Amino acid sequence: MSSSPITQPPVAPGVPVTRGTDNESDAAFESSHESPPENLESSGGSYGEHTQDQADSDDTGYVYHPAQEHADDDDEDDGDEDYDNEDEHDDEDEHDDEDDEDDHDYFDGSGGLEFELVIDELAPGAAHDDEDDGWDDNQPGNALQRRILQIIRGGGGGRARLGSRQLLSLIQGHDIDDIDDDDDDYWEPPRRMRPGYAPAFPKVPSEQGRKLMESGVFGTFDLREPDSKRKRLTRRLLDRELGLGNRTEQKTNLALMAQQMIPSSKPEMVIHYDDPVCCGQFSDDGNFFYACVKDFKVRMYDTSNPYNWTHYKTVRYPFGQWTLTDADLSPDNKWLAYTSLTSQVCFAPTDPNDTGDPYTLDLAGGMVRQGWRDSFPIFSIRFSGDGRTLVAGTGADSIVVYDIERREPLYNVEGHDNDVNAVCFADKQSPHILYSGSDDCTIKVWDTRSMSSRREAGAFVGHMEGLTYIDSKGDGRYILSNGKDQSMKLWDLRMAMSTADVERLDATKPTASRRYQYDYRFAEYQDHMWRPHPHDNSLVTFRGHKVQRTLIRCHFSPPGSTNSRYVYSGSYDGFVYVWNLDATIAAKIDVKSVTEGLRIPGYTPAARRREWMTLVRDVGWHPNVPLLVASSWNGPTMNAGTATLHSYNENDVDEAEPSMGLSVNEKIQPDEGLFNWRGPRGYEDDDADDFF
């Protein structure tokens, strides 16, 4: 592996590089992913960090819905003693009840503020009746009502739909005669799920995925042993010890052994943090693990013994905003680059003897984009295979390629129509081909040798919502992506759509012209919202997990410990999902149940009046042993975090040391406020019922 060019603190003469400099120019930035919106009312409620306490509080902000408006109007009308015509009042109440039913039909319960305004046309002659009853154009509200009636009659139907600009103008009391909204501008709620309705999700098991499994690209596949007749692990161990078979058969036996040792839900150790864990990964050799926490600190652990960790260092991101977003190790493991919602990347040495503060490089490099001044948020950061280049995905809809040796950005390409949430290189050994995934629902392929043209080399389409993460297999061919449409997809670089084909087919139109709004931070994604993309060029689609609240990550399983057999992802429901390549679920690792109540003595949902919640945001699989680490958000309000170690075990107990289920703090030390998975610390108590 080539060495990193960062052999000394990254400071160059004449270049403005600082140690822990405050990024004041970006202090007002508020991310659409990891930070609260400025206007909570317009975003449909409080930000994703909102808790159940807020939901139950009397001070919770009122969420508007048109059906509720009718109910409020009815209450006001019932209390109006000055209303003269009681018969007319009753007729209007009946009419309001019908409107209530109609509005409830369109309400999908997602908590959003979007709605469709439907206005019923008055029956012929109704206007004259109103005039006989004393209609006064000068009376407050009557002019607006007359304008609405005029619009309806002009439409020639009993129901009318207003465009978004027309509706806004109408609410503001302006004339809307000269405003012409296109058909795609008005919002239409998703269709209701009919009884027995089942979306046409991709077939499982996937035929294409099965072909990939049998091809040997994703691990050994023994056609002589169908899944229903696979040897037990104990039998394979016996075959290995007896040395049965020739060299090829012995190698196949070892590969199939690795495939069968998927980590279980029973934890080896639970590491507790006072804030949510954003991401955590092993180094390529497995001797190092880092955990990025929302408190702007990165904890580093020596994992040369994967079952007996040692904490040796904690570094901080100076003047970060809201949270840490991503981190990556240099190819030689000497430097860790980590980011927050600013344009500055921090570099911290991984050497335990180097106790200096981290250094920062500003990827903005003086580049100015309209609306972002001289800074932008960074959602994703990656080293190139030779360690000489950084690539970043930003909230300015751009991909930044930065030359570390020259301390300047090479390219800053606005290649997407929305935030770039993830970037990665196609090949760990090559700095040329890279991918970018965005909230515009596309993955784009770039060649750094031709990025000066600011045009991508190809694209993938198929996700119906924005992407949260992409991961490369490292072979320059396959890529994995997670999407807010609750699906994970596998792609082949050879099937990428050319830029000319994207333009000719208008391949982005199905996602650019959606007639609903889904905010994954707050709402549940309903099955009836999903539609197959007409130009989907993915190989396999994986479903079952939940991609909500935050940018949840997915990965290929490592070749050493799993024989490259699986793909896996975190999930909002507190599980780690492991799939075979044919989209069938190979395992579900329950992180929620093993972390529930370990920080709260005597916790039960009934006693605390809060449901315990766990969100698995990232998962790191050890490259050499059957062990993975789930980085999670935990607690009744998900304001704490854990890193849980799960290894292959067939029993709940283990005679080895340290014992299973041990709860420790961030420095791998006992803590009186923590409880073991099988009982309170310091007691030989196997009765876990006292704590669950």
From TrEMBL:
InterPro entries assigned to the protein according to its UniProt record, in alphabetical order: DCAF, WD40/YVTN_repeat-like_dom_sf, WD40_PAC1, WD40_repeat_CS, WD40_repeat_dom_sf, WD40_rpt
WD repeat start and end residues: 413-456, 460-501
GO biological process: proteasome-mediated ubiquitin-dependent protein catabolic process
SMART domains for this protein: WD40
Matching PROSITE patterns: WD_REPEATS_1 (PS00678), WD_REPEATS_2 (PS50082), WD_REPEATS_REGION (PS50294)
Bias (Acidic residues): 71-105
PANTHER family associated with the record: DDB1- AND CUL4-ASSOCIATED FACTOR 11
Protein name per its UniProtKB record: WD40-repeat-containing domain protein
The organism of origin for this protein: Pseudoneurospora amorphoporcata
